[in-house]
């Protein structure tokens, strides 16, 4: 679904952007120079809620969420932070980055936590559409996974496996 097909909320007689996708108008107000678009997993079970994510960030003392957008297993995209404000996605990169995450990346097998790509087909489609939309407005920004900052092809250097798949390879055509 394209942003123009999504419903708008109305406030004081003027349309404001939907909470699903940002708009070009929104981008014009963004004074941040965006150089990176990071893809994340929430490192939770796919059943986690947006409210539980917010509570987790609050519990560790974060004033800003970890992501600008999060994609539920249903494919619904939820805006957590305006693009003109930094989120806490990747230490050292947040001032110039947009962060997008899918809920999941973790499953339990025999009482052990296993990190893996748990994206549903709906999440895959929504992530691709969201990333294409964001990249269309920040065309010079590089799309990569959180783990990619340590070298996508150097797993021994990763401090996190997030997003549990090779985002550089998957989104190279965007």
How would you describe the overall organization of this protein?
The chain is of the alpha/beta class and 174 residues long. Helices cover 21% and strands 21% of the residues. The strands form 3 sheets. A 5-stranded mixed sheet has the order 5-4-6-3-9, covered by helices on one side. A hairpin with a 2-residue loop joins strand 7 and strand 8. The protein is globular, with a radius of gyration of 16 Å. It starts with 8 loop residues before the first strand and ends with a helix. The model is unreliable at 1-28 (pLDDT under 50).
Write the layout of secondary structure elements.
Blueprint (H helix, E strand, L loop, with lengths): L8 E3 L2 E3 L7 H6 L6 E6 L8 H10 L9 E3 L5 E3 L17 E6 L3 E4 L2 E4 L5 H17 L4 E4 L21 H4 L4
Q: What letter string, H or E per element, gives the SSE order? A: EEHEHEEEEEHEH
The residue-averaged pLDDT reads 84
Widest sheet: strand ordering: 5-4-6-3-9
Tell me, what's the shape?
globular
Radius of gyration: 16 Å
What is the straight-line distance between the termini?
Answer: 16 Å
Helix content: 10-25%
How many DSSP H or I helices? 4
Unreliable residue stretches: 1-28
Q: Tell me how many strands there are.
A: 9
Largest sheet: 5 strands, mixed
């Amino acid at each position: 679904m394209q942003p123009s097909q999504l419903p708008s909320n109305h406030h004081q007689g003027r349309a404001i952007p939907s909470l699903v996708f940002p708009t070009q108008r929104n981008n014009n107000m963004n004074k941040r120079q965006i150089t990176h678009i990071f893809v994340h997993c929430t490192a939770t079970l796919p059943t986690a809620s947006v409210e539980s994510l917010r509570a987790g960030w609050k519990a560790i003392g974060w004033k800003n969420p970890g992501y600008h957008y999060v994609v539920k297993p249903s494919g619904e995209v939820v805006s957590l932070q305006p693009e003109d404000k930094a989120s806490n996605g990747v230490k050292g990169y947040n001032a110039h980055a947009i962060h997008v995450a899918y809920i999941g990346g973790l499953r339990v097998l025999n009482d052990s936590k296993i990190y893996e790509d748990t994206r549903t087909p709906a999440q895959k489609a929504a992530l691709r559409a969201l990333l294409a939309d964001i990249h269309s407005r920040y065309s010079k920004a590089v799309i990569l996974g959180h783990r990619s900052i340590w070298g996508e092809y150097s797993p021994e250097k990763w401090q996190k496996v997030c997003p549990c798949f090779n985002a550089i390879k998957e989104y190279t055509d965007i």
